[in-house]
Every structure is written in structure tokens, then in C-alpha cells.
Write a structure and sequence with these properties.
Blueprint lengths: L6 H5 L4 H13 L11 E8 L2 E7 L13 E5 H8 L6 H10 L13 H6 L4 E5 L2 H7 L4 H8 L3 E4 L6 H10 L10 E4 L3 E6 L2 H22 L15 H12 L4 E5 L2 H7 L4 H4 L10 H4 L4 E3 L4 H19 L12 E4 L3 E6 L2 H23 L8 H8 L2 H8 L1
Parallel strand pairs: 5-6, 9-10
Antiparallel strand pairs: 1-2, 1-4, 2-3, 4-7, 6-7, 8-11, 10-11
Helix pairs in contact: 6-7, 6-9, 6-15
Length: 391
């Protein structure tokens, strides 16, 4: 992975926040690190004599974020929150907003407490494809330990307060100078330093190490020895619009990767093993619609019935989302993503594109394995993640 740092551009930054914007954009421009609002960054600074954390605002994209995309929050308040035994989503959001310097700033990232807890000036967090590909393999825990001996490695925990408090408990007696970062299984990676360039370089170096491992141990050969099936796209759009209850826009992926992925044996089981990183589920749902015949309505009806069973299995007082699929895989042909807008369909297209390669590569490491069905439901119906989509 290329290191995009340019000293001249960094030196032109006037203050901490400008430098934070610069390095955030460097991370965001690489879609193998973050996709469509993923990841978050922060910088600790002093404003009018008070220690504050500038953290990415919820819903902003690292590739294009500007100064106004960061929220300044009193650091002491966030550190106090990390020590609580329990904090609901609503309480966390409200207390973070109450501790903001500017009421007009966006809501702080759901990882703001964790960023505050890490005792370094600059903190970078991405969902790097290479890291989560290795982590989402059945032997991922072994490989991650071998590759990242100087990292704190954390089993999957629900993002937000639960994750922050877990790391607070894990690091009470930790000498932070002895680690280079944090690996969150099935989720992503944190790097940090008091120097912005060093923190960014640690991220690039760590992800490059994971990429090198995959290049040696998880090579995927895209083959083309399959017969294409056919699909009436106009019928797909009209039918999905009826089931979604609104006009549907689509993005069709017929790249060699997508066609090869759609040609796999036991396609339904193969392609229904969950998301690459938890926040993807609010875009894609946990599994796609698999079409191995021409009975589109029957396929959608069976998908909806299965989704309702999944919802009823885990729901407490949640209201069910639209149970129709957000994307489908047509055997031997293509992957089709659905959205309210062309932009939304393209977001899902991009997420699935990255997921397909990760699944194929993780299978080379012994098998792809996402978070559990129960954890998937918790993430899909997490009120804070739902708020991003509403926004």
C-alpha cells in the first residue's frame, strides 16, 4: 500500500485540526482502507485552555472531510464516560453532545470515547480490507497474532460504548508505549502517535504487512469457464420496486470478479456468510437474495420469509425494517444492488465488490467467517447506525 504523505503539504497545515483534516483525507482516498463514511479519526488539542478531542463527525466521509466535519468535545467528559459500567446509546449521544464546544457541529463519532481513551495526540481508525479479510477467516485469530505481535488484539465487541469500555478495562495497567496499535477482530484497526505522520505511516505499514501476507497465502485466480444465464433487468426493477415500496435504482456488477463469484458451487451457502465489517450490514443486510432460477417473485418471497424468521428470532422491541433484499446474486451472471437512488445503489455495489474478493481470499486461508447472526442483528438494528441512514 502506497504511503501518500507529502511533507510540503503537511507543513502547510496551520494547526492541529488542519493537519488532522489532511491525514484523514489521505486515509479516505484509499477505498481499501475505508468505504463510504467508514472509519474515523481524531486529534487531541487545547481550546481556550481546555483539553478537547476533535473527532470525525458521524456520517462524514474521510475522503472529503473538512474542518467543519469534526466535532470538538471536552476530553475529560469522554474519559469519564469510558469508566461507566453502562451507558445506553441515547445517553452516550446526549452526553457527548452536551460536552461539545459548538452546538452546530455534527454528532461525534460513535467511537469518540475510545479515541479519547487512547493517550496519543493523533488516532486513526480504518476498516482495512486486508486486515478484516484475515480476521474474518476461521484461523484469523492465529494469523493476526503472528502478524501483529506488538498490537493489542480485541475479540469482536459491539462498536460504541461497549467497545470503548472493554478496551478501558483491558488497558488499565497497559504501558501504551509498548504497542503500535489495536486490531479489532471482524472490524478494523487503530494506529496512533503524537506525530500525525508516524500514526499515518503505522497504518500504511500495518495494512501493507497484511496485504503481503494475503499475496503469499491467499491468491485468487478468476476463472471464466462458466455459462452465462439471462436476466430481464426491467422486470427486476419493477418487481423490486413493488416489494420495496418505492422506485428502485440498480447498479449491475458484471466484472470478472462478480461473474466468477456468482458462478461458485453451492452459491446460496457460499454467498450467505455475512458482512465483511459490521457497519456494512445497514447497507447490504446480512445476506443477499440468491437467484439460481427465473422465479424472481418466488425468490423474493422466500427471502422475505427467511428475513422475518431472523427478525423474530432476535427482536425485542425493535420495529422491523423492510425485509426485501438490498442486493442479489444471479447465478453465473451478475451481482445487482438496489437503492432508493443511483448513489445508494452504487454504495452497495462498492461494498459488495470489496466483500466478494475478501470472501474468496479468506476461503484460501481456511474459510470465511463473519460475526455471528445475533451480533449481526444487534448491529443492523443499532439505533445509532440507523440514524446515519436517516440522515
Amino acid at each position: 500500500m502506497d504511503n501518500l504523505w507529502i511533507d510540503r503539504q503537511a507543513e502547510a497545515c496551520r494547526n492541529d485540526l488542519d493537519l488532522r483534516v489532511y491525514t484523514s483525507n489521505l486515509l479516505g482516498v484509499n477505498d481499501e482502507l475505508v468505504l463510504h463514511g467508514g472509519g474515523n479519526t481524531s486529534v487531541k488539542s487545547v481550546v481556550k485552555g481546555e483539553d478537547v478531542l476533535y473527532v470525525k463527525g458521524s456520517g462524514w466521509d474521510l475522503a472529503t472531510i473538512k474542518r467543519e466535519g469534526f466535532s470538538a468535545v471536552y476530553l475529560d467528559t469522554l474519559l469519564d464516560m469510558a469508566q461507566r459500567e453502562y451507558l445506553s446509546d441515547t445517553e452516550m449521544v446526549q452526553e457527548q453532545r452536551d460536552a461539545m464546544l459548538d452546538d452546530n457541529a455534527p454528532n461525534p463519532s460513535v467511537e469518540a470515547i475510545l479515541h479519547a481513551l487512547i493517550p496519543f495526540k493523533f488516532v486513526d481508525h480504518t476498516h482495512a480490507d486486508a486486515i478484516v479479510t484475515i480476521s474474518n477467516s476461521v484461523n484469523g485469530d492465529i494469523y493476526i497474532k503472528q502478524l501483529f505481535e506488538n498490537f493489542l488484539i480485541v475479540d469482536y465487541v459491539m462498536p460504541g460504548f461497549e467497545l470503548a469500555h472493554t478496551i478501558y478495562e483491558m488497558t488499565k495497567d497497559l504501558d501504551w508505549s509498548t504497542i503500535d496499535g489495536i486490531i479489532l477482530h471482524n472490524h478494523g484497526i487503530f494506529t496512533f502517535d503524537d506525530d500525525a505522520k508516524v500514526s499515518y505511516t503505522k497504518m500504511i505499514d500495518a495494512v501493507s504487512r497484511a496485504e503481503d501476507f494475503l499475496d503469499k497465502n491467499a491468491v485468487v485466480h478468476i476463472e471464466h469457464n462458466y455459462v452465462h444465464s439471462e436476466c430481464d433487468i426491467a422486470r427486476v426493477i419493477n418487481t423490486m420496486s413493488e416489494y420495496k415500496g418505492h422506485e428502485v435504482h440498480i447498479a449491475i456488477n458484471q466484472t470478472p470478479l462478480a461473474a466468477f463469484y456468482a458462478s461458485q458451487e453451492n452459491l446460496r451457502a457460499f454467498a450467505s456468510r455475512g458482512v465483511l465489517t459490521p457497519e456494512h450490514i445497514i447497507r447490504t443486510k446480512r445476506v443477499p437474495l440468491i437467484m439460481e432460477d427465473t422465479d424472481l417473485i418466488g425468490g423474493i418471497e422466500r427471502y422475505i420469509e427467511a428475513y422475518k424468521e431472523y427478525f423474530n428470532k432476535y427482536a425485542k422491541d425493535e420495529v422491523m425494517l423492510n425485509p426485501a433484499p438490498n442486493y442479489m446474486i444471479i447465478k453465473n451472471l451478475a451481482v445487482v444492488s438496489f437503492g432508493r437512488t443511483r448513489e445508494e445503489a452504487k454504495v452497495i455495489y462498492d461494498i459488495v465488490e470489496h466483500t466478494m474478493l475478501a470472501v474468496l481470499r479468506a476461503d484460501k486461508l481456511g474459510g470465511y467467517e463473519s460475526i455471528s447472526e445475533a451480533d449481526s442483528f444487534a448491529m443492523e438494528y443499532w439505533e445509532l447506525e440507523q440514524a446515519k441512514l436517516k440522515k
